[in-house]
Write a structure and sequence with these properties.
Elements (H helix, E strand, L loop, with lengths): L1 H30 L5 H15 L6 H5 L6 H23 L1 H30 L7 H18 L3 H8 L11 H21 L3 H16 L2 H21 L4 H8 L3 H29 L4 H32 L1
Helix pairs in contact: 1-5, 1-9, 1-10, 2-10, 2-13, 4-5, 4-13, 5-6, 5-10, 5-13, 6-8, 6-9, 6-10, 8-9, 11-12, 12-13
Length: about 325
């Protein structure tokens, strides 16, 4: 379907331009003294707000019939998984964070490889080395910003307990991930996938030259969430109908609008949770919001695995 291919290509271009802009912002502020941690926190919060809707339509894709016993069971299990994840992360900050880092890197990498596979399948192209691409595309934007020289300041703004989360492996992870990213770029070039090599190059550059929270803001909100929403438009009934009528923009916004109510619910729940457990909203809101989003990622990752595997095949 031409509308689907058009949307996926547009989103790929927009996400690339967003990362290029993020790199430019990072380099410019590096030259003039850096970006204040307050601005970084603000950008991170905005990125989370932009990214939340992309993971909020799992029920519409997995269980399309809202008025059914299956939906009740689905939501009950889903919310129970989220609740358990929140409890675990709040009970074991460091271990919970380490598991989230690993889980996120895997989820991001597989999702990005699946996004490209969706484009390839519509272009009759199947030459992407999926595993090396997924490893580099997922771990580069997650690991490098968390183990570079600016990571301590960023983690202190989130939760001081996370500083030094990688222990003695920090420098090994930093240089190792740079090596893996560079090796993957070369692999993509040899496989004649300049497009994939360019994507990983962008992710490596923003991870190296942009402050951690800013790099996260641009990556999560304007790369991962944007590309995932494009893939959701291939599954969501309202978006599929719009694609069939060649209404590309409507197909995309149908996927976005379906998840917007969740943004309000997540923010309201986060504020309520913070107040209930006695956190300071002015200084700890980013931490508790991240905890809620990480917890939501647990069932979200499990549910999107079906779509990811189908696209990768």
């Amino acid at each position: 379907m031409q509308s689907q291919l058009t949307l996926l290509n547009r989103l790929r271009l927009i996400s690339r331009l967003a990362i290029l802009f993020g790199i430019s912002v990072g380099v410019f502020h590096l030259l003039v003294g850096g970006i204040s941690i307050e601005v970084q926190v603000l950008l991170a919060l905005l990125a989370l707000a932009v990214g939340i809707p992309h993971g909020a339509v799992d029920h519409l894709v997995t269980v399309p019939k809202m008025a059914s016993l299956r939906m009740v069971i689905f939501l009950s299990v889903y919310l129970a998984a989220v609740g358990l994840a929140i409890w675990f992360i709040l009970s074991a900050n460091l271990l919970g964070f380490q598991l989230v880092v690993l889980m996120s890197a895997i989820h991001f990498g597989i999702g990005d490889a699946a996004f490209i596979s969706e484009i390839d399948s519509r272009n009759q192209r199947n030459s992407l080395p999926k595993i090396p691409y997924a490893i580099a595309a997922g771990f580069t934007p997650v690991m490098i910003p968390l183990v570079n020289q600016q990571s301590s300041e960023a983690l202190a703004a989130v939760n001081p307990a996370l500083i030094g989360w990688a222990g003695a492996l920090e420098s090994w992870l930093y240089f190792g991930m740079i090596g893996i990213a560079l090796a993957s770029i070369i692999w993509m070039a040899v496989a004649k996938r300049a497009d994939a090599a360019f994507d990983i190059s962008l992710l490596l550059a923003i991870s190296l030259f942009t402050p951690p929270l800013v790099a996260f803001a641009f990556y999560f909100g304007l790369w991962h969430a944007l590309r995932h929403t494009g893939r959701l438009s291939l599954e969501l009934p309202a978006s599929v109908k719009a694609h069939t009528s060649n209404l590309t923009g409507k197909a995309f916004w149908s996927s976005v609008n379906a998840g917007v109510p969740a943004l309000v619910l997540v923010v309201a729940f986060t504020i309520g949770l913070a107040v209930t457990i006695g956190l300071n909203l002015s200084t700890e809101f980013l931490w508790i919001l991240l905890v809620v989003i990480w917890a939501l990622t647990v069932p979200h990752m499990a549910l999107t695995a079906r779509l990811d595997m189908r696209a990768l095949k």
